[in-house]
Amino acid sequence: MYVNGLNHFASFLLFASKHFTELFGFEVTTYGKSIRIIDDLKAGSVFLDRGCMGRNVMLGFAGLIAVFPGMWKQKLWFIPLGLGILVFVNVLRISGLAITAYCCPEYSDINHYFVFKIVAWAIIFLMWMWWFNKFALKAIKKKV
Question: How do the domains of the chain map onto residue ranges?
Answer without folding.
Answer: 2-143
